[in-house]
């Protein structure tokens, strides 16, 4: 129980583990454009808020399923991965000086409530909402990776003069790609544990999807 | 038709609040000396403000001194600044320049300190002392910055200052505390600057004492919040455990 409540009061750990190592001789690449900076700003803010949400959704589900022999290890595994994602984006937000989402308290309460209510309504419904959330997040991460691949390849290495990714951008890309893979693993876990047996599946699935999309849209901006 | 990139850059120019600070890509200096308007403002700031204050005359004289015809100033500032007001830009130049120097001059010394509170206090003191050369004209700058048409630009710059101080002091907040902290630090900055205007003590020791007390209050407020949070979490855990033990007993 204390583990769950502690998730509400996260503090950024040392960023060194999660960020690209500080460049020894100063910057290696030429300046990012303002649009590129604005995009990265948005990416880190929305992903931090999202992973915070995911962390607390699983915390909410764990309140209910922590006692189930079948589900405890499953939820715990997914939750541990989300805790890692959350810590990563906390470190990136702090280290790269991005403003966190202003609605952070609302995301905390909302996400925990969603996990808890889903859990109370039963395994199938909890898994159906996981299915919906992870579907949206998978697409969201893919979009970000696409933009990071297409719109950031015009930055010049100061030494060689060639256009390459700086270690910073490469690190963000790598983290997002890994997390995308883990989120889609959660998606198949949810389906394996009877997400589609929820009744009415379409209603729960579409509602939670809409909720997630709205939250993503808001967290990018506010 | 503007290209997408141009439209992006125009849109981004309007937004002066700093976003995403890269460590691997070069960052332009805060008071960028490469632009024409900053060349003029820098000249005005170092050579003319101590005598003439934060006025349009100071900018006019500086323009003449760097070889720009003062009658073209209107054109230069109308198109490159949101305020379109030379005295305001001069005041903002002071804020930016002092913010830049606060970090550049003191980063080594601050790096030797061990805790966030000391560093914050250190940067605050150094920043206030950077007002010293222009302090007798500083009321003009502050008066200019709080005009209704300028207040949004001034608040952005105030946020940038509070953000820089908190970040370089080693702030670790990742949620709403991020906003509370910057808000509190910004409040302490404003109060201390107003205090400084009428401070005649030697080396502004009264102002420094005043600022230290304000930051102490910010610190205490933070500690109260954290203790309260811990107390709530502790009580939540104990209540739930008590309920569980009663339920288990049947």
From TrEMBL, chain A:
UniProt cofactor(s): Fe cation
Annotated residues for binding of Fe cation 2: 82, 134, 183, 186
Binding site residues for Fe cation 1: 51, 82, 85, 183
Catalyzed reaction equations: a 5-methoxy-2-methyl-3-(all-trans-polyprenyl)benzene-1,4-diol + AH2 + O2 = a 3-demethylubiquinol + A + H2O
Keyword Iron: yes
Subcellular location per the Swiss-Prot or TrEMBL entry: Mitochondrion inner membrane
Pathway the protein contributes to: Cofactor biosynthesis; ubiquinone biosynthesis
Protein keywords: Iron, Membrane, Metal-binding, Mitochondrion, Mitochondrion inner membrane, Monooxygenase, Oxidoreductase, Ubiquinone biosynthesis
The protein's enzyme class: oxidoreductase
Function: Catalyzes the hydroxylation of 2-polyprenyl-3-methyl-6-methoxy-1,4-benzoquinol (DMQH2) during ubiquinone biosynthesis. Has also a structural role in the COQ enzyme complex, stabilizing other COQ polypeptides.
HAMAP family: COQ7
This protein's name: 5-demethoxyubiquinone hydroxylase, mitochondrial
Source organism of the structure: Eeniella nana (Yeast)
From TrEMBL, chain B:
Descriptive protein name: Ubiquinone biosynthesis protein
BP-aspect Gene Ontology terms: ubiquinone biosynthetic process
Keyword flag DNA damage: no
Family matches, as InterPro entries: COQ9_C, Ubiq_biosynth_COQ9
UniProt keyword annotations, A-Z: Lipid-binding, Mitochondrion, Transit peptide, Ubiquinone biosynthesis
GO cellular component: mitochondrial inner membrane
Associated pathway: Cofactor biosynthesis; ubiquinone biosynthesis
Pfam families for this protein: COQ9
Domain COQ9 C-terminal: 151-221
Chief localisation class: mitochondrion
Organism: Eeniella nana
Subcellular location: Mitochondrion
Similarity remark: Belongs to the COQ9 family.
Record function comment: Membrane-associated protein that warps the membrane surface to access and bind aromatic isoprenes with high specificity, including ubiquinone (CoQ) isoprene intermediates and presents them directly to Coq7, therefore facilitating the Coq7-mediated hydroxylase step. Participates in the biosynthesis of coenzyme Q, also named ubiquinone, an essential lipid-soluble electron transporter for aerobic cellular respiration.
GO molecular function, one term: lipid binding
């Amino acid at each position: 129980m204390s583990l769950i409540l502690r998730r509400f009061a996260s503090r950024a750990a040392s960023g060194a583990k999660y960020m690209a190592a500080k460049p020894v001789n100063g910057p290696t690449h030429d300046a990012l454009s303002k649009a590129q900076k604005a995009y990265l700003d948005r990416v880190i803010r929305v992903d931090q808020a999202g992973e915070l949400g995911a962390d607390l959704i699983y915390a909410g589900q764990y309140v209910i399923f922590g006692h189930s022999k079948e589900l405890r290890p499953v939820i715990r595994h997914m939750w541990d991965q989300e805790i890692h994602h959350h810590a990563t984006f906390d470190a990136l937000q702090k280290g790269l000086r991005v403003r966190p989402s202003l609605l952070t308290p609302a995301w905390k309460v909302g996400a925990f409530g969603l996990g808890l209510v889903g859990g109370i309504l039963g395994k199938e419904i909890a898994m159906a909402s996981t299915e919906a959330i992870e579907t949206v997040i998978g697409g969201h991460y893919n979009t970000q990776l696409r933009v990071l691949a297409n719109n950031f390849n015009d930055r010049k290495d100061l030494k060689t003069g060639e256009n390459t990714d700086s270690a910073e951008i490469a690190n963000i890309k790598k983290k997002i790609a890994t997390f995308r893979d883990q989120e889609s693993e959660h998606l198949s876990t949810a389906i394996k544990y009877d997400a589609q047996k929820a009744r009415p599946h379409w209603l729960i699935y579409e509602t939670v999807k809409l909720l997630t999309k709205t939250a993503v849209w808001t967290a990018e901006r506010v | 038709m503007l290209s997408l990139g141009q439209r992006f850059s125009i849109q981004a120019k309007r937004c002066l609040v700093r976003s995403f600070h890269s460590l691997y890509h070069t960052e332009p200096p805060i008071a960028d000396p490469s632009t024409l308007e900053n060349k003029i403002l820098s000249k005005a700031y170092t050579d003319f403000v101590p005598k003439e204050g934060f006025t349009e005359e100071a900018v006019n004289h500086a323009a003449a001194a760097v070889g720009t015809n003062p009658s073209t100033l209107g054109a230069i500032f109308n198109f490159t600044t949101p305020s379109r007001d030379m005295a305001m830009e001069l005041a903002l130049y002071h804020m930016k320049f002092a913010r830049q120097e606060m970090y550049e001059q003191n980063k080594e010394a601050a790096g030797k300190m061990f805790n966030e509170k000391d560093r914050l206090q250190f940067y605050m003191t150094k920043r206030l002392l950077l007002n010293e050369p222009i302090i007798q004209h500083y009321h003009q700058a502050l008066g200019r910055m709080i005009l209704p048409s300028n207040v949004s630009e001034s608040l952005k710059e105030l946020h940038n200052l509070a953000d820089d101080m908190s970040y370089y002091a080693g702030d670790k907040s990742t949620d709403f505390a991020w906003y509370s902290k910057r808000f509190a630090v910004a409040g302490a900055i404003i109060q201390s600057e107003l205090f400084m205007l009428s401070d005649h003590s030697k080396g502004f020791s009264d102002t420094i004492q005043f600022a230290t007390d304000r930051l102490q209050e910010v610190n205490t407020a933070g500690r109260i919040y954290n203790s309260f949070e811990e107390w709530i979490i502790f009580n939540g855990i104990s209540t739930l455990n008590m309920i569980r033990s009663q339920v288990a007993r049947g």
